[in-house]
Amino acid sequence: MTQKIKNQVILVSLFTAIFTYVFIASIFLGSNFNVHIDTFFCQATGQLDGLSKFFLIPLSIISVCAFIYSFYYFPESDHKKEWTITSIFFPLMTFSMVMIVLAKNLIMLLIFWEIMAVSAFFLLITEHKYDEVRDAAKLYIILTHFCTFLIFVTSILVYKYTGSFDFPKTGSLDPGTTVGTSIFIFTLVGFGIKAGILPLHIWLPSAHANAPSSVSAIMSGLMIKMGIYGIIRYISFFHNPPLYWGLIIFAAGITSGIIGVVLAIGQHDIKRLLAYHSIENIGIILMGLGLGLAGMSTGNDIAMVLGFAGSIFHILNHATFKSLLFLGAGVIINASGTRQMDEMGGLAKKIPFTFGTFLIASASISGLPPFNGFVSELFIYLGMFAIISKSSLLPLNFLQLMGIPALALIGGLASACFLKVNSAVFMGTNPNLQNAPQRKFQESFYLKISLAIPALMCIGLGFFPYILKSPLENVIYSLTGNYFNLFNYFPFKELSIFVGIFYIFLILGLLVFKLVYKNKIEYAPETWGCGYTKPSHKFRYTATSFAEIITGIFNFILNTHYHRKDVKGVFPKKAYFKSHVPDIFLDNIILPLFQFLDDKLSPVRKLQAGNLNLYLLYKLIAIVSLVIYGAIIIW
Fold first, then answer.
1. Cα dihedral: 470, 476, 482, 488 (round 10)
2. CA-to-CA distance for 147 and 190, rounded, in angstroms?
């Protein structure tokens, strides 16, 4: 594809995006509606309610940014196959996710769910020449089809309950029955695999790390949200869910949040680190969802409204800052020629625009004001504090005692982790960068657009969250059947004033600094250079060293493997320090279990001897056995 055609395609994408936004704005002003279409093989039923509308926001924005970015990720002259794969399966995956959100029929949802899963598989193996990519794709395709199987079972249970493949009305099913409980369990596990809830997350780190960065952005920012959408949609079928549903989801959120961020800190691969942060943020989303369900069960409207609003708001926020981080990681990797943070450094001057947007996303994902991640977490904090003042029920005390410290711990550890990332990647010096491959797409105009849009969303949603007041109220109406005015529950006005004052002081401070200290700093030592006046890259404080203290504190969870040779004596010999953090579920439980089963079942392989006569004997035995079984049944 020539540069001229490429530019035309991008312009068409931008106009399509603008048209989509206008369409979304128009439907936001209108009412909900349903669509029923009879086809030659099935009846397709669609809907557009508050929940569907909200999920269309990140789908329509982030997918366009990632698609534009993908045009520059692979140089066309050397990657024609990758170009073809991306051009076919990227739009197909986006379309399938839109149709999942619009589906109001179990069969329709399953069909587009499978299209999404298969499209993601082909995008994941775009760079299939690498062994780790093929291994990640194998693990993904196994887990995603197990996920589809469980969702199929869930849909059959819903059909058995209602007698129809159409979605039941909101709050029309009884959660107290055996079928209702079964639907909840299969929903949580089935959609939970796609969402990456611990310990069902095992496909996620390797898939996100080994996919092209534009694909990682859409997988982390959008695809795993389809799992959350499925959980919310299926639970909305039930009226007054029991309290233990909310407590289970809340506990799963705490587990995913804390363990996810702890595992992220121990990573050296920048994309693998971001993948574990996806698990952490899914945990925050689940904490809000569990809080909302617990509030609904106990009649605590404040906890219900703030929990649901915080959870839904964080879905959009995570889509913005996580996609921005993955897109930025792609630029970083191409500028440095490696995914290992210990081998990076000094990139702030080389890719300043990426540095700026990556810094905004880092602050957002850490829940720091005045960015959007802070706002959604504030919703959940206020909901949990509301329980303290409104409830004396023992189970809800669990939410207070565990949830508030857990959310604070997650935010603190995330801040430490992204301090490590930004310092190790952008600060200091690294002479190895001179040998890194230079790609033309680095910080080109369209690439900056794909980074700037989510960055502006991080800033804008943190400054003016009121813009989402109506969409959030519509989502809560879709889940509860009642309208709640969020002005009565959340300080939109006060928060915007606070953020506005913050920006005023920030701008004034920068102006004063520039006027007072301009040309007065005679020497500026390299940041991250341990204070040395002329540090070499050997003096750098590496990402591994930075994380040593934190990984040591949480080693009872991480089981970190250290490889070190300390500095000893007046004239020390060469020293080193390395660490490896295994996935506590995949590497310590699942793989050893399958290895054990493989060893114990090895005698069974002797049945596959490659002898045709023996195989015919097997068939004869099977047929005779079936005949005998049938005769016994008839008799």
1. -60
2. 5
